[in-house]
Amino acid sequence: MVVINAGKLLLWSLNGAPEREVGAVEPRDSAIGWSGDSRYLFLQHNTPGNRSARILRLDIHSGKKELSHELKPPEAGAYIFGSAKITPDGKYYAFSFQRDRAILYLFKGLR
Q1: pTM strictly above 0.85
Q2: Residue 81's closest CA among 106, 47, 56, 111?
């Protein structure tokens, strides 16, 4: 089991072994999946305002992170929401985004 607490990523064993600290994480990091061989944990890091995100691959043995994918909605004004999904081989991913469209009318000289 993965636990993120006070900027640390911990692995907790379900068989009673003590937890193991894997490395540091940033406030906007969240765990989104494991690699097929369970060596890597995929993390999603959203930018402020959720205008884009990065998927990072964390080696749980060394604590080293590397960029796997950059997530950007296809148009300006859209933002990412929720967690991305990624395949265990790290090749394919999906994410949701939302567009907020509004029209502002300005009327002058009304009485």
Answers
A1: no
A2: 47
